[in-house]
Amino acid sequence: MALAVELRKMRQDDLARVMEIERECFSKPWSESAYLTEISNRSAHYVVAVSESQVVGYGGMWMIMDEAHITTLAVAPTHRRRRVAEQLLIDLLDEALRRGARRATLEVRQSNHAAQALYRKYGFVPVAIRRGYYTDNHENAVVMWVDNMTAPDFQACYRALKRRLARELHQNAVEELA
Question: How high is the pLDDT of residue 178?
């Protein structure tokens, strides 16, 4: 069942929990100082997903000219498969569009089929392989792009996906109250 989360900008006081999730999700985690740098960078946008007053996921991106580069997206293992990553991705794409992005890109582990499926759902297509990209095990990265986020086809699909998720989250909230 989808879990509605509160999405807000990442703050310094979130970093202890962000680092816990980082270590759970990634074999070569970023450092806390890297996140401190990122959240103070005006070209970056980092957000956390909060459920019951606890950070359960986070994501980040950089804006470079008219391109959004998604740098990280992670959800605590206990909260996966509940559409938290999808809500984070929507927030990142909304911010990218607000900032005038025309394109979006990211790298994802070749073995991470669940993440690739989410990105494909939102219009990302694989365009290249970065051989040995990940230093922990030399796994390849799949480079994925949305080439034109302003195209009418992308916009229509994106709006429909957002509406569908909003309806599902609303329905789940109604059912929980019943």
Answer: 66
